[in-house]
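Lecture 7 notes. Example A: sequence first, then its structure tokens.
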Amino acid sequence: MATLELTSRDFYLLAPELSIAGVAVLVIVLDLLFRRKDILPWASVLGLAVPLAFSVALWLDVGDGESAERMTGLFGVLVVDKFSLFFKFLLVAAAALVVLVSCDYVRRFQRIQGEYYALVLLSTSGMMLLASTVELITIYVALELTALPIAALAAFLRDSRSSESGIKFLVLSAVSSAVLLYGMVLVYGFTGTTSIAGIAAQVAAGGSGNALLFGVVLMVAGFGFKIASVPFQMWAPDVYEGSPTPITAFLSVASKAAGFAVILRVFYVAFADESLNLEWGAIFAMLSVLSMTFGNLVAIRQTNIKRLLAYSTIAHAGYLMVGLAAVASRTASGESVGASGVIFYLAGYAATNLAAFAVVIAVTSREGGDRITDFAGMARRAPYLSAALGFALISLIGVPPTVGFITKVYIFGAAVDANLEWLAVAGVVNSVLSAYYYLRIVKEMYLSEPASDERVHSGLPLRLAVLAAFASVLFFGVYPTPLLELSRAAAAVLVS
């Protein structure tokens, strides 16, 4: 009987995930050895250079242009290509910024800072693994590795709202996982394989049936929870409000990026056959309109800025699903404009939302509340932070010269290319609608009277995070070509 053994190549392909888990263990050890906890965030950020270096090395090994290849390992369930590596870069950057913005915030739970940073890193390792998995069982395991640390982090404040958010996330995550697993079982029953490539081959050879289509619908529902799309968004507002604010930022950016990474891999590869892609494309088009409209309309009524941003992220899940719906959109080279649009949008959205949340963390930590009225007159008390938040908010609307404008133009253009003009129009209308509640925050900062003249101070790590995120929003808004080319290279893998 042949034995299955891990080779050095398998460990090399898993090096980014293994190294980030190793950094998490290192942080726990440092927490036990040192009384001063200031070392923990810097150890976490500097430690992230290791998985980043491994990811760069893998990118160089994959190659460029026509010589680009997929490297497969771990008994065929793991693949390293430009698609997975793009998301590894994005997730490492997001984790680093979340750690930086957490430095001042985590002092409120002094005794468990090491556990906090370690759980963030472990969840990131699961998200990175999601982007590389090409087999349904492994996808499910990676999803649980991602979700369980977040459930613990959501309850870290240990008050009534935080405990409620942790329990709600855990219970609803379990329900969604069960739905997703049932869908995977139906797909396996129809195709006889859990491999994404094998499923694609079976569907192409035998077509689709009602059982397979039902399995696809259940998988859409399961993944819909992970990306907080309507009607699976019920957890997001309460969890966002009750969680520590840096974890809210982490959920809104890193978790969403990982969710869309696995959706792109599964649907654009396993269910790429024309007998299926028009079906699930229509489902995502419908969910897109519902998510955009519901998120924006309910956000208008919010007075708590974390709940407002929760409904905002539901709306942005809708914008992202415009790219998923554009499955028929192809360039002359065969590249999926819809897939590259989703990837490009995720990168721009990550920079924008992290910039916004970094400022929200600075202000709410100082004011002791997270109501929109707490930002009244903030332009006088923290002019640079207010400018960064205002710029991030107009990027979320989609106004030039921000990266948010470029990403929306690109993803709505993909819808037009796929003859989904009505979906692009719905996206534009919803973008205009969102201006009302985003600009309401800007109005509070610049036109309302401040409750105090005391300056809002923030630590060096948070200021570095704001500067990095703000610079990314501005740079890629003015010169998006490098990011766009990376997105196209990553998307090309899915249709090659």
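Example B, a different protein, same format:
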Amino acid sequence: MNVHSMHETIVFFDSTCLLCNRTLQWILSNERSHTMQFAPLNGTHSKQYLQELHDLPDSLIVVHNGNHYILSSGVLLVLDQMGGIWSFMSRCFRIIPRFIRDAIYTYIANHRAAWFGRTEECLLMKGSLRDRFLD
């Protein structure tokens, strides 16, 4: 079964990254739509769905309507999906050329472990929001 057939938008993330965990906490507390699902990059759903794709980042991959979005494009799609002011912010950030947005994203992603640390397990998959996670 294709993961996409179950949910319209799936955010794959690095579950051991503390920045990623904090970002997901922020998304979950600020989104309006509550339609996104989340899955760790090292989980069974990512292996099932992303196995055919190559050269993907190890930080964030967003699958929406059968297409995958990486780097700053993934972040902007998440902001769009959140609704409200965040959709507006996404449109504003699209003014910045993609190569600049992606360079900033890549710089932060490459340094996130040193700046924010790592954990042995996803901090979010244990709480009351467990039903939003696929693995």
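Note on Example B: The chain is about 45% helix and 15% strand. The chain has one domain: 3-127.
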